[in-house]
Amino acid sequence: MVHTSRETHGVMVHTSRETHGVMVYLCSICDIDNLIMHIYNTLPILPKYNLNSKDEALFILFLTNVPPAQLICFSTATMAQKLVIIDTDAGIDDAQAIMMAVAAPSLQILGITCCFGNTDVDNVCQNVLLVLSVCEHTQIPVFQGAAGPLVGATKAFSDHFGTDGLGDVLEDRDPQWKEKLQREHAVNAMIRLVATNPKQVSLVALGPLTNLALAIRLDPSFQQNLKELVIMGGNMEGKGNVSLCGEFNFVMDPESAFIVLEEYLCPTRIASWEYCCRNKLEWEFFEKLINEDTPAGRFMKMITSKCWGYSKEAMLSKRDVYFGPGFVSYDAYAVAACIDSSVVTESIECAVRVELQGELCRGMMVLDQRNKLNKSHRVSVMKTCDLTKFRQLLMASLKQPCRK
Ligand SMILES: [Ca+2]
């Protein structure tokens, strides 16, 4: 009878092909009256419903003549959601990660802050606006942030995701993009949003950490009011992708990475480059992913179509040398950990520091597993990933647009 199910933080939706019915089980923190209103707003053509019970906050709703696909997509905006700010340098993997975040019913994205990185910050802003447009989540505010690192000139942008960050295949850029940005600077927005929601916001950092370093310089209490920080960046085995020992996000602004890892004392989780690569997925899965026949799927297929970073052949002489063949969507690992901490099955708890000197190691993250640095603050360095759950989150991210 039941052929589809999804479980997310106390919400379970079952639909049956025969009756086109849905059962919604709610945990005790949910506001049932708001949910009923929301279902009516989302599905205004509801023919009828029968409310069976509110006992113990268990709520079963039967609907008829509503396609299951619609039901699977209805919003859980009235649920208790995790508040999130995403800081990004929007390349292709950031686009994937943002899609995953906006698709997750358990997240409420307060804003997306932009930083230089994969491309210049103007392109990053445009890329974020475009991704939100594809997913029909243009209500999420986007803020422009740092255009370069704290110290020194901006390094040449990597062409890993094309010069525009999204694979150099987009022909029609939105001439009105600047008008769609918020006027407030990204760093001010981060400080304001966190101060307004103390100890409630998860900050997910997917690019160079410049905005985060600036935030703590402008407001030293910023990090104290964060619920948690999740970073994609750095390395844990001394293997580098843009330098011998350095990972891209940290190498683009080593001083900012240093400041963040020394001064952010909130709970911190790090998806290093090696973590992502060691938990790579099969290229066959990538093919399945980009062949989702949805606006998001078609968009992802287009932006990866000419990008060597998503080429099985091009990777043979690069990442594969260390880790063997596989497809890696770096930033999505950090968002997945934020959505569901059980996606990470093993972590290393230790102090870390970023090397700022040296010809070979500048920008490298060092793990202090023997506590030689005598740092009291320890972070959680992700080690292994539940790939089944990760695949599910990736697939859900491309089934968009989808109302939350
Ligand atoms: Ca990124």
Descriptive account of the structure:
- The chain is an alpha/beta fold.
- The protein has two domains: 2-75, no CATH class; 82-280 and 314-397, Ribonucleoside hydrolase-like (Inosine-uridine Nucleoside N-ribohydrolase, Chain A, Alpha-Beta Complex).
- It has helices at residues 32-42, 68-72, 92-103, 121-134, 177-180, 186-196, 210-218, 248-252, 254-263, 273-278, 283-290, 295-304, 319-323, 330-339, 387-397; strands spanning 2-8, 11-16, 21-25, 50-51, 61-62, 82-88, 107-114, 142-144, 201-205, 226-232, 268-271, 344-354, 365-368, 379-385.
- The protein has a nine-stranded mixed sheet with strand order 8-7-6-9-10-11-14-12-13, sandwiched between helices. A three-stranded antiparallel sheet has the order 1-2-3.
- Strand 2 (11-16) and strand 3 form a beta hairpin.
- Helix 3 packs across helix 15 (387-397) and helix 6 (186-196) crosses helix 7.
- The longest helix has 14 residues, at 121-134.
- The chain is globular, with a radius of gyration of 21 Å.
- Residues 1-31 and 43-78 have low confidence and may be disordered.
- It binds calcium ion.
- Calcium ion binds at residues 88-89, 91, 93-94, 117-118, 206-207, 331.
- Residues 84-391 form the Inosine/uridine-preferring nucleoside hydrolase domain.
- One of its GO terms (molecular function) is hydrolase activity, hydrolyzing N-glycosyl compounds.
- This is Inosine/uridine-preferring nucleoside hydrolase domain-containing protein.
- Belongs to the IUNH family.
